[in-house]
Fold:
Amino acid sequence: MHGPRGGGWGTIAVRLAELGRRYACPLVVAATGHDGAGRAAWLRYICREAQHAASHGTAVHGICIAPIVDCPKQAFELRNSHGLWGPADEQGERAVDMWLAKELREQQRTFERLQHERIEPAAAGAARTRLNRAFDA
Structure:
């Protein structure tokens, strides 16, 4: 479900921390997604990794699911659905992946809760809470 453990890959949280240190700027997990039935589990994994990185000081400002809407599959493609909304039917209607929708809402609630748990810094440069580091606007 994620990159190889060997060869210096590490977890997503470790990679985010390395990138945060290297570039000294906020990060965005962009264009992440999973093919087929594992979409909700993938989103959960990515969000937990971002929360873990943020709780250790990495500024992760966002996570982008891509694609959010499936496009028509080409004849040569073997892929399954990727997005929250499936491909349009003949009437233009799109089915919603309810597992992904439920997980997305759960992650939104988690990040909202973390934001409300934030600790105001006592002085400039003081540590901020996980959500501020993760999704500071």
About this structure: The CA atoms of residues 70 and 86 lie 5 Å apart. Residues 119-137 have pLDDT under 50 and may be disordered. The chain has four helices and two strands. Strands lie at 27-32, 60-65.
